[in-house]
Amino acid sequence: MSFVGRIEQEGVVWLWLDRPQRHNALIPELVRDLRSSLAWSAAQQPKALVLTGRGRSFSTGGDIAGFIEHAASAEALSSYANQLVGGLHDAIMDLLKFPAPVITSVNGPVTGGAAGFVLAADMVAMSDSAFIQPYYSEVGFAPDGGWTALLPERIGTAKALEIQYLNRQISAQHAERLGLANIVRPTFALEDSIRDWLDDLTRRSGRTHTATRSNIWDADRLTAVKRRLDQEQSRFLDLITMPETLQGMQSFIQRRA
């Protein structure tokens, strides 16, 4: 069973996170499948890549139930978190290095580290009912997925800190004003909007797009992002085994139940 669907159509690869019964919450198996699908996608030499989610949510970030299941010992929990966050960050780097334009279609809520799939995209279409929200301070996690490695560069340091300190929910309309989304559409219209983009992209020079992307995400910039993602991972591991974090996870699960 794969947790990521994939198809190639007319020179474009479409990927979708496929764990809808858990709102596409991230587990190590899903991020491994995503990385495998991204490698397959790059080998197709597509004109563009589209990433979306199946079901009502794009992705609700790391599956807290998965963390709790591995909380019998600090070693087991730390190992699980290291696999998940490390795999997520590797997938984000794969997206930044991808040799063609990357489009993310945000069909529903995006929380926690799944925001990295938005931050690593070149163009983002958001459902008008979708939102982005950190939730780290509600649980006691350290931010991962680029919330500190990529977001401040996009929207400014002060705004990035405010959103994370106060767990602000970023509506689709606010995301568009901040520059995190290019367009906001009703969910049923997202695919049509993306196909309009693809019609435009695919009739232009793919070599130019590749050169443009590699100039922007050059070695120096990628190295800086990787260092900051590694820093996020290290601090995530520092906090994940603390008793207060386990209590925060249990309380979060209870509130959602």
UniProtKB/TrEMBL annotation:
Coiled-coil region: none
One matching Pfam family: ECH_1
Domain of life per record: Bacteria
Keyword Isomerase among record annotations: yes
Molecular function in Gene Ontology: isomerase activity
Keywords for the protein's UniProt record, in alphabetical order: Isomerase
Keyword Transferase included in the entry's annotation: no
Xref: PANTHER family: EG:BACN32G11.4 PROTEIN, ENOYL-COA HYDRATASE
Family per similarity comment: Belongs to the enoyl-CoA hydratase/isomerase family.
Stated name of the protein: 2-(1,2-epoxy-1,2-dihydrophenyl)acetyl-CoA isomerase
